[in-house]
């Protein structure tokens, strides 16, 4: 029998070997050469088909002894092949168990991951609920702040209206005070100008009288010794009054400038100015009293001059001298004013 026929017989007797597995005396060992692993279902179908095909030929060969021996040998080979197949099945089963265990570990890992994801989702839902609560609280506070803002806006609008009314009233008061200040300033300026003109006029007259008096000084040496002291006092007083007048003018200019810049203090400054004027009037009265005393002294001097000067032309000079002192008195009074 050729090799092809023997291989076909080995495949045909695949199931027959299972029938004699427990009857053989020999202990089958793991073959050194591994046969190709076949799928179990495919192998069974193939074996079943081959068995059906070869059964006819087997019936023809059953009568021959040689074929029986060959079949026995083939049976042993088939048994060895079946052993190999069983070994492969066990190996595949072990590998399948390991794969199942790996799959179970993977499933457990995935379940744990899913549980962690569920826990994380629950935490996220809790956080979301807290955020919603916070957002609602923030919206409530925002609504309250909006209401407060609206109330403050209304109050601010009313305050602006009140401030506008006060500003208009303030503008009216300011205009009145400025008008009053202008009138008073104008009056004071006119008074100062008139005073300056009067002083200039008196100064010119005084210069004229002085030139006239120079001509009479030689004839009045005796009298000059008597009224020299009075004249010195009058000149000193005149210097003081002039200095006071200058200081008053400077102070008045500063006061006017200050009043122009600080208009809010105009009323009080005007009151103080009026008080100062009253005081000046009182001082003027006292100066007039002093001038009266000087006039009495001049009358005494006039009497003395009448005794000394008997001529008519001397009498004219005496009148001019008296008029000079009277004008000085008027000048002093104007300066005090």
TrEMBL record:
The keyword Coiled coil applies. Keywords: Coiled coil. Residues 61-311 form a coiled coil. This is Uncharacterized protein. It comes from Xyrichtys novacula (Pearly razorfish). The lineage of its organism: Eukaryota, Metazoa, Chordata, Craniata, Vertebrata.
